[in-house]
Amino acid sequence: MRLFLFVLTSVLSGTSVALDNGLMRTPPMGWLAWERFRCDIDCDNDPKNCISEKLFTDMADRLAEDGWRELGYVYVNIDDCWSSMERDQQGRLQADPKRFPMGIHNLSHYMHARGLKLGIYGDMGSHTCGGYPGTPLDKIELDAQTFADWEVDMFKYDGCYSNASEQEKGYPLMSKALNATGRPIGYSCSWPAYQGGLPPKVNYTQLGEICNLWRNYGDIQDSWGSVLSIVDWFFDNQDVLAPAAGPGRWNDPDMLIVGDFGLSLDQSQTQMSLWAIMAAPLFMSNDLRTISADARRILQNKALIGINQDPLGIQGRRIVKEKSGIEVFFRPLQNNGSALVFFSRRSDMPYRYQTSLKKLNYITGSYELFNAFTYRTMQVKDATDFVVSVNPSGVVTFLVSAPAKINRRQFYSGGKLQGPAFEDAEENSLPPVFL
Ligand SMILES: *[C@@H]1O[C@H](CO)[C@@H](O)[C@H](O)[C@H]1NC(C)=O
Ligand SMILES: *[C@@H]1O[C@H](CO)[C@@H](O)[C@H](O)[C@H]1NC(C)=O
Ligand SMILES: *[C@@H]1O[C@H](CO)[C@@H](O)[C@H](O)[C@H]1NC(C)=O
Ligand SMILES: *[C@@H]1O[C@H](CO)[C@@H](O)[C@H](O)[C@H]1NC(C)=O
Ligand SMILES: *[C@@H]1O[C@H](CO)[C@@H](O)[C@H](O)[C@H]1NC(C)=O
């Protein structure tokens, strides 16, 4: 076995400042219309799926009644194509009167009465991506105040039809304007996605100060290829992205498509596991009225949600990339715990991957490995070889409880993996444990 990528570089989270609105200390969770329902406005012919208040109250009912809300899925987020083509006589944005007869303010009441929150969408340019009225520089204060008046809880600011210099002014200005309303409103910035997602064009220090979350990369589509391209980009750039994340400030690899049409069961488990490792916002974009039991079980998996919502808010990393196509992902968690995901890029058959926690740089000691999908628990010593059988495009995901003597900080101090992780441990000659 050859490990040819084996360096962890990170900084302790909490060293950078987060947007000071007190919100989203763990990644936000909920539902967002875009990937599944797009800009379907044909309510005459497709009343169940068109962008209308009925779609959002239907999803709210499902979140409140089918066990989602209690797990943290509380945001019900409108995306593009909600507004009228015209602003009102005072110049304010208004909802399309036919598709949103009760209006956005009443819709937010509907959410709040059910213990949920409402998110809304706007765009930095002259128009939204779908061609609806935008929120350019001279409309920022007015629109922020309108959203606050409607008691909205989150705002996604897209970037179509704007250029780099407008974005540089507009995204911070909107942050100030939202703050000035006095209403805490979670702020999602699409800015970096329009600037290639990487320095020097993107300043992640600044983003963390003005936004709660930000889209770094292109839109997700309902396919495995799309999920894989997102995974590749985020982990190939983990040295830039991971230090940017922390409580109140998150990288957003885009929506969960689990429950839609493009992913197999194994691929669905992979998306959920890697979004948990990445400390990604968990916004489902699916039809909660008809979702399968299998997809629901994955999205409601408490171990995965627990990993995603870990209060330390440290974004995990890929720590191993094998020639065999097996990759290992690691995220440190509170109480000296951690999460491990073994992912297979293979397309032949389940691959039996043999490793040990010692090979994965865990320090000497006994550990408990809880398999997030089979719920089986196994005790292993750091040097004990074990075998995981990883399905093609699937994962094996563990919650690892560490011995009390491990100090997570020792993994991360000085930005380099060091300290007891390299402590000598006696090679354990026991036969491999199968998990
Ligand atoms: C506005 O910003 C100030 C200073 O950063 C902060 O104390 C306050 O909580 C913020 N208010 C809202 C509503 O975000
Ligand atoms: C909207 O809410 C107001 C009170 O908040 C209520 O009087 C009105 O009937 C509601 N309208 C609709 C269409 O639900
Ligand atoms: C960006 O757009 C604004 C407004 O349309 C325009 O005045 C400005 O020249 C543009 N800047 C660049 C760099 O294209
Ligand atoms: C990035 O933003 C931070 C905070 O706003 C600022 O202090 C820093 O100078 C910026 N870095 C660059 C390279 O512009
Ligand atoms: C984590 O490890 C540190 C350092 O060995 C130890 O002091 C602490 O008690 C451990 N914390 C927990 C919750 O086990």
Question: What is shown here, in short?
Answer:
By secondary structure, the protein is α/β, with parallel strands linked by helices. Helices cover 26% and strands 19% of the residues.
Q: Give the neighbour order of strands across the main sheet.
A: 7-6-5-4-3-2-1-8
Q: Assign the CATH topology of the largest domain.
A: TIM Barrel
CATH superfamily of the largest domain: Aldolase class I
Query: Any idea how many domains?
Result: 2
- Rg over CA atoms, rounded to whole Å, is 22 Å
Average predicted local confidence, pLDDT: 91
Largest sheet: 8 strands, parallel
The CATH class name of the largest domain reads Alpha Beta
Structure notes:
By secondary structure, the chain is of the alpha/beta class. Helix content is 26%, strand content 19%. An 8-stranded parallel β-sheet has the order 7-6-5-4-3-2-1-8. Strands 9-10-11-16-13-14 form a 6-stranded antiparallel β-sheet. A 3-stranded mixed β-sheet has the order 12-15-17, with no helix packed on it. α4 packs parallel to α5 (164-180) and α10 (265-277) packs parallel to α12. The relative contact order is 0.13. Residues 1-14 and 406-432 have low confidence and may be disordered. One 2-acetamido-2-deoxy-beta-D-glucopyranose is lined by residues 335-336, 404-407.
Attribute tags:
single chain; alpha/beta; TIM Barrel; Immunoglobulin-like; 2 domains; eight-stranded parallel beta sheet; 17 strands; disordered N terminus; binds 2-acetamido-2-deoxy-beta-D-glucopyranose; disulfide bond
